[in-house]
Amino acid sequence: MPSTTKLSPSDQMWSDKEAAAYLGVSCVTVRRLRYRGVLPYRKVGAAVRIPRSAVLAYAAPQTNGGAA
């Protein structure tokens, strides 16, 4: 089910493969994140696209904390 998150018309849309490459995870992991509602997405014909801003927002907390 697509998220109801408002998207900017100028927001670049990424495929699962592009999002997975940026996050350093598999396409299956990106699909799981979509299905859980963690990453919003839009269907464009038969293709699924994820807003770049959503991928960057998801990645931000993952990279900021860390054990030293």
From TrEMBL:
This is Excisionase family DNA binding protein. Residues 17-60 form the Helix-turn-helix domain. One of its GO terms (molecular function) is DNA binding. It comes from Blastococcus saxobsidens. InterPro entries: DNA-bd_dom_put_sf (IPR009061), HTH_17 (IPR041657), SinI_DNA-bd (IPR010093). NCBIfam families: excise.
